[in-house]
Amino acid sequence: MFSTLRYVNQPALSSAAKNFMKNGVAKRGMSIAALNGFEGKHFISIDQLSNEELRGLLDLSKKYRDTYGKASTVDPITAPKPLTGQSVSMIFQKRSTRTRVSTETGMTLLGGQSLFLGPSDIQLGVNESMRDTALVLSRFNSLVLARVFSHNDVLELSKHATVPVINALSDLHHPLQTLADLMALEDHFGDVKGKTLAWVGDGNNVLHDLMLGGAKLGMNIRVATPEGYEANEGILETTKKLAAENGTEDVFLTTVASEAVKGSDVVVTDTWVSMGQEEEYEQRVKEFDGYQVNANLMGQANPGAVFLHCLPRHREEVSDEVFYSPQSLVFPEAENRMWTVMAVMAAQLGKL
């Protein structure tokens, strides 16, 4: 018997959030219907989604949480199993806690099966090409999820696979994380349109999709990165275009953390040293001096501002005082990784 899930460190919902969620339930069927054309599509980056598809995935994620999560009265054993008979192969070039556990557990809740394929489990990149791997796995599985180093690898998989591919992380994009982040923000604030999101840290894959998704939902984007650690220029330009299309401010860029945080409603950071960058640790920590999200920095944000971090975290990135505070949405954010990957898989298979 599965136990129902419980949030950890979940701040109380504002009245605006409660109203947004109440109205959202009423409109959810219409927004989820926008995913009817998503069947068979790859999920590679947030900018490939239409605004309607992004809205649909967020609302489907909330529907699954209502069905299988902490507030549900449905027995997980007898709950709907729309992915019965389906399977996902999970290619992991990089280790993970949240991605693996959320996908395996979420697929089980939906009635399907997942297969973990680590670096020593298959021939990928050793005796077998990405193209051949894609073609073989497509014969066995309904979906292919890939957590890789190079974005070119996930593009190669999606080019040759005959089943939908999910980018579970590459060096350029992390779209599943953005869905979880946006869901956490809507749970807290309600409608996030007009809210200001500040990024403090490395201009990396997590920032890339969060910028894109935030702009699509009408959020103002402010980014602080040290010199030499700026976000990808092409993705910045796409974000600016989306900001203009959705009536938000132009993207604000700075090298001073406090300048980005001032007037923000959300402060986000991530690891400064990703997997594969361990030899750069000392240099990076030195160059990110002044970027720790602590009480002083959070104090420069708007009253009621919240904090996000996709985990795993290190104390040089964020102080315990902030990380474990009522301002932190880190653990609800982490839980949302399951509801959102469930939504993506179901939508790709047309099993809503």
TrEMBL record:
A biological process term (GO) from this entry: citrulline biosynthetic process
Family: Belongs to the aspartate/ornithine carbamoyltransferase superfamily. OTCase family.
Residue ranges constituting the Aspartate/ornithine carbamoyltransferase carbamoyl-P binding domain according to the UniProt record: 41-186
A Pfam family annotated for this UniProt entry: OTCace
NCBIfam families recorded: orni_carb_tr, PRK00779.1
Keyword field: Amino-acid biosynthesis, Arginine biosynthesis, Transferase
GO MF annotation list: amino acid binding; ornithine carbamoyltransferase activity
Name of the molecule in the record: ornithine carbamoyltransferase
Gene3D superfamilies in UniProt: Aspartate/ornithine carbamoyltransferase
Top-level taxonomy: Eukaryota, Sar, Stramenopiles, Ochrophyta, Bacillariophyta
